[in-house]
Each structure stands twice: as structure tokens, then as C-alpha cells.
């Protein structure tokens, strides 16, 4: 996923929100990415889901603007 910087940034934002520093995860995002932890994979899955939803919403907005 390192080649998709936007998806990685989204996964980092999700990871940091799900595992805030007040309730720290066992690893930082970079460590979780390196080790492929469950938390990291969940954050990536959430980012991928969010990308799909946001892309569909963007397409809807573009279609509405054309009408």
C-alpha cells in the first residue's frame, strides 16, 4: 500500500482515530504497517471502504452537477 499515498494517509488517520494516544495501540502506525498487525489491516480495510464510498459520492455529485 506504500505506493498509494492517499490510501495510506487515510489508513493512518483511521488508525490514529481508532487507537488514539490516550488509549495507545501496541504499535505506532509505522510499526503496525511494518508488522502487518490486525489493527493495521483493519485500518486499511476501513480506508479502502471509505475510498469506495467517497468515490461513489463524488460520482453522484458530478452527475448531479451535469443535470
TrEMBL record:
This is Uncharacterized protein. It comes from Sphingomonas albertensis.
